[in-house]
Design a protein that fits this description.
The chain is of the alpha+beta class. Helices cover about 50% and strands about 20% of the residues. β8 (about 245) and β9 form a beta hairpin.
């Protein structure tokens, strides 16, 4: 007869994020000793690390923090939503975020070279995967600086941690405007901040498509320049942050909102898990 209870299984699952059968097998082997069972789960996970290397990590979370005038954001991935919402995975992600902030990391390589609990983050990632029984991966890291930086995290499901994250920096003290624009960015996902950032070849290609489309529609020759410029403006409104209609007041552009607040953007980062 097993010398552990359903409550013991539940408690160990919450501590490790492991599946029910893995937890039960570990408790059986450990004769009900929870600490020994946890160690067995971890050892088994380390042995399976190589097998997990090719697995897809489409779930996970986004975490962000602002400290000393800089915002840091990371995306940490796993294989299933069960693990994504587990306490051990969230704890690991928070430790990785703290490591990124402490190291001033702006990319994945810099974060992996930083330390968690006295060991390289690269090793901590493997150990997290061993504990959780899934492949764990730090996919992206971003760092945005500014006189004020807003970090906005959005849950796409109430049962999961944040799946969308935004860092938005401005060159002045405008917390309300910065936050409102960060929320806007989360929803509208602009590709560029200003028109100047759009590659010239992309603009010319959009202009060519607009011209060819107007001609195919039989538009008058004399009206083509105005039609093309109008459609190009539509492209900018869709893809360029400062040209986008502001989410809270579509009669204004984001650029106008920031101008009213007396600030300009210093940087933007937007992550969506798996995208």
């Amino acid at each position: 007869m097993a010398n552990y209870t359903a409550a013991d299984i539940k408690a160990l699952r919450e501590r490790t994020g492991a599946g029910m059968m893995d937890v039960k097998k570990a408790l059986d082997e450990a004769n009900g000793d929870a600490e020994k069972a946890m160690e067995l789960i971890r050892i088994k996970g380390l042995k399976g690390a190589t097998k997990r290397e090719g697995r897809s990590t489409a779930e996970g979370l986004v975490a962000a923090k602002v400290a000393d005038g800089a915002g840091t954001m990371i995306e940490v991935n796993c294989e299933t939503d069960f693990v994504a919402k587990s306490a051990p995975f969230i704890e690991f992600a928070n430790k990785a975020l703290d490591a990124a902030v402490a190291a001033g990391a702006a990319d994945v390589d810099a974060l992996l070279a930083a330390e968690i609990d006295g060991k390289p983050v690269s090793e901590a990632v493997i150990e997290a995967g061993a504990l959780l029984g899934e492949k764990v991966d730090i996919r992206r890291v971003a760092r945005v600086e500014g006189a004020f930086v807003d970090a906005y995290l959005h849950k796409t499901s109430k049962d999961l941690p944040a799946q969308v994250g935004v860092l938005f920096g401005v060159d002045g003290d405008a917390p309300e405007a910065a936050h409102d624009v960060a929320v806007h960015i989360a929803a509208y996902a602009p590709t560029y901040i200003t028109r100047d950032e759009v590659p010239a070849d992309l603009v010319e290609n959009e202009r060519r498509i607009a011209d060819e489309t107007a001609r195919a529609e039989g538009k008058p020759e004399q009206a083509l320049p105005k039609i093309v410029e109008g459609r190009l403006t539509g492209f900018f409104k869709e893809n360029v942050l400062l040209d986008q209609p502001f989410a809270k007041d579509p009669k204004k552009t984001v650029g106008a909102v920031l101008e009213e607040a007396g600030v300009k953007p210093t940087g933007v980062a937007r992550f969506r898990v798996g995208a």
